Amino acid sequence: MLRMAIRPLLMPSILPSASYEAAEPTGKPKAEVHAEAERFAESVGYRPGDELEPIVERLGGRIEIHEFAELYETGSIRVDGEGRFTIFLPPYTGHLRDRFTVAHELGHYVLHSQCGKKQIRVAREGSGRTEWEANWFAAAFLMPEKVFQRKLAEGASEGALAAFFQVSPAAVQVRRESLEG
User: What is the pLDDT of residues 40-62, one digit of tens each?
Assistant: First the structure.
């Protein structure tokens, strides 16, 4: 489990630096972001339900729990260069929420930093296009369309899908609605 292996931060290493660029939306359509997320998942050897920490580590990143929840309500990412990034999680969220957050932050890493070519720091501040793209990425990364559709065709319930993909039932519902229309 993600939380078991991560030590809490004692120092606020999330604080911003002047060298970071703002994360800019790609402007890609949702279907293109979904396809990019699925290609990326395949390229890093991710299979639905796999743990995410080993993937983050293979990419050169790390995941930290920060005790400064008053600064950032949800996760955030700091990208210091290619293969050098940190995903920050708040101390009060659960395993399934953390999985989606890590996949969301990987979306920022892939889409908005171009896998580290741009140094960025992103903390959720609203729900603009950049955040939408990262959410689209996370959903497709964690729940690839072909596998999702196959499980639906097999008659899997929302709860069974959530258990299989290791996401919340709400994430399953949003993914299903997204794929239906």
Answer: 999 999 999 999 999 999 999 99
Helix, strand, coil content of the chain in percent (nearest 5): 45, 15, 40
Burial of residue 16 (number of CB atoms within 10 Å: 0-12, 13-18, 19+): exposed
145: burial class by Cβ within 10 Å (0-12, 13-18, 19+)? middle
On whether the CB atoms of residues 175 and 139 are closer than 8 A, the answer is: yes
| Under 8 Å between Cβ of 28 and 36 | yes
pLDDT-derived band at 66, boundaries 50, 70, 90: confident
Rg of the Cα atoms in the chain = 16
**Fold type of domain 3-10+17-143:** Arc Repressor Mutant, subunit A (1.10.10)
The secondary structure of residue 83, as a DSSP letter, is T
Contact assessment for residue 67 and residue 91, using Cβ atoms and an 8 Å cutoff: yes
pLDDT value of residue 75: 84
What stretch of H or E contains 62? strand 61-65
Model-level pTM?
Answer: 0.88
